[in-house]
Amino acid sequence: MLNTKPTPFIRPEDFWKNIELRANQTVVHLGCGAGFFLIPAAQKVGSKGQVIGIDVLEDMLKEAEDRAVRANVADIVKTIRSNLENTRGSKVEDNTADWTLVANILYQSDPEKILTEAKRITKHKGIIIVVEWSISDTPLGPPPTKRIPRSEIISIAEKIKLKLFREFTPSPYHYGLLFTEKT
Asked: What would the CATH number be for the domain defined by 12-181?
């Protein structure tokens, strides 16, 4: 069961535990940055699982790779440098991910393009996790005027034939949405 109790800030280890990530699964993190979510995911999926981090910034991917080496999960974590707003931008094969994470990037990107790419790479029974900044003014994050309301994300998801099946609060500063493909 997904824990909905917010934490002071998102703790990736708790996040994956609460999301119910399991061994042998495949996770793709679109816009992975320095890999904060990658390492705990790799530790959860284990040696028969796979974790793929994608980002446009080479220095962020290098940091993620270094973290993976330090955590002894470099054989599980793969990074890809790519622009997610391009068609097939992640460079990941169709229907690869059990879980696709899109965290804190939609406010600075084209949300429809990113969510379309997330849908493409996620297995038909897989889950797309969206974590974005709450609209309210918070001590962290982008200016509230740049943030995307959850209702807008839900509307875009419905447009591309995703259905919302659960909401959660990963921190006091964020909202979380879980989507699956409409059948």
From this structure: 3.40.50.150
